[in-house]
Every structure is written in structure tokens, then in C-alpha cells.
Design goal:
Layout lengths: L1 H6 L4 E7 L11 H15 L6 E9 L10 H4 L4 E5 L8 H12 L6 E2 L17 H11 L2 E5 L12 H7 L3 E4 L11 H10 L13 H7 L1
Parallel strand pairs: 1-2, 2-3, 3-4, 4-5, 5-6
Helix pairs in contact: 4-5
Length: about 210
């Protein structure tokens, strides 16, 4: 992934495997995640062309609890919190789950906020205005998932998010090196949502990103 990122001219790339509850995606348990963090930091000591950031895509469980304890999340450079299972038909429940996750001081970004899979699964009901307002209050970034099956958060909401001061994080959701090119789709969607370069986390240099984190 680091070499593929360097080949695309990326200065930095975040690595965020699924957490343990996403067993269908071979999610990492605490031991494997901590080993990955060590491996990433050892790799960065070689001063590679593309620096890696140690992260996790941490499942938001029922009630808004996170899949890893704070003691583990504190070891990471960043944390993406996402719902992958247990969707509710109740908008209030889903919204409360997302809001509680964003209140955790170690959560950096909210992943694919509506859970939609285009042509396959409708988004779960959620109060997006309330979610965006909470993101602004907590300083939580919102993901624009660049995978063509997701493109979530939808472009129609980004102008509102921008006006609230919420930063957008383009994420290729790359499960293979070639998926890093999904970033091109994300840029197109961000433009469609009237986002400026300054509204994207991804336009930051590595020193600027570290300061932001």
C-alpha cells in the first residue's frame, strides 16, 4: 500500500483495517492491531516517500460503544468510527449511536455515515443535520468514502457540512492497491458538493496533517 501510494504521488497514507467485530472482514483484535502499529512506526523510520499513519476503522457497537477500549485507541494516529452491523429502523437509535461515538475524544472521523451500498442497500435512517452539527461541535471529520458502491456521505450534504466548518476526509476504502485510484472519484464528488481544497483533510501536507491531528 505504501509503495502504491508513493507511485500515485501521495505524501501520506492512513492504514485503517477493520476492528475485531467485523469478523467477515478479518478485523484485527487488540494484539494484531498493536503489532501493526509497531510495524508502521518501524517502516516510517526508513523515511519512505509515502509515510504511513496508524489507524483503525473501529466498529460502533450497539448503544454507541466502540469496539476497542480507549487505552488501545490512544496508541493510534487516528480513529475512524463506523457502523457495519445492527442497523436499526429507528432513526433516533441510529443517530444516538453516531453521536455517542463522536463524543469519544479519540475518534477522529465518522465513516460512511449512512451505511448505504448503491444499487444494493438503502441508507439506514439517520438525522444527518444533527450528525453534522455534532461533528462541528466535536471537531470530528466526516468521511467521503470514495468506493463507487458507497460515495457516502452523499454530495448533496457537503455544502451544508462545509458551512458548519466540518472537514471532509476522502477515503479510497482500498482493500487492494488498485483501489487507491478511487480517490479520483472522491475528488469528483467533493467538487460536485462544492467543497474547496481547504475543506479537505487530504490537501494537507504531512506536517499540517500532524498539527491537525
Amino acid at each position: 500500500m505504501a509503495q502504491a501510494g508513493a507511485d500515485l504521488g501521495l505524501e501520506w497514507l492512513g492504514i485503517a483495517d477493520h476492528s475485531r467485530s467485523s469478523f467477515q472482514a478479518h478485523g484485527l483484535d487488540e494484539k494484531r492491531l498493536l503489532a501493526q502499529i509497531e510495524a508502521i512506526r518501524a517502516y516510517n523510520k526508513k523515511r519512505p516517500a509515502c509515510t504511513l499513519l496508524a489507524g483503525t476503522e473501529c466498529d460502533i457497537l450497539k448503544g454507541g460503544k466502540l469496539d476497542f477500549p480507549d487505552s488501545v485507541l490512544a496508541e493510534l494516529d487516528y480513529v475512524i468510527a463506523s457502523i457495519h452491523a445492527g442497523f436499526s429502523s429507528d432513526e433516533k437509535d441510529n443517530t444516538a449511536r453516531l453521536l455517542r461515538a463522536m463524543e469519544n475524544p479519540y475518534v477522529t472521523c465518522l465513516g460512511h455515515p449512512t451505511g448505504r451500498l448503491l444499487l444494493e442497500r438503502e441508507p439506514y435512517p439517520v438525522n444527518l443535520p444533527k450528525v453534522l452539527e455534532a461533528a462541528a461541535e466535536t471537531g470530528t471529520w466526516i468521511e467521503l468514502n470514495c468506493n463507487p458502491w458507497r460515495l457516502d456521505l452523499d454530495w448533496r450534504w457537503w455544502h451544508r457540512a462545509r458551512d458548519l466548518g466540518v472537514l471532509c476526509c476522502l477515503n479510497p476504502d482500498a482493500h487492494q492497491t488498485q483501489h487507491l485510484r478511487f480517490l479520483d472519484l472522491g475528488v469528483t464528488v467533493a467538487r460536485k458538493g462544492w467543497l474547496r481544497a481547504s475543506d479537505l483533510v487530504n490537501t494537507r501536507t504531512l506536517p499540517q496533517l500532524r498539527k491537525l491531528l
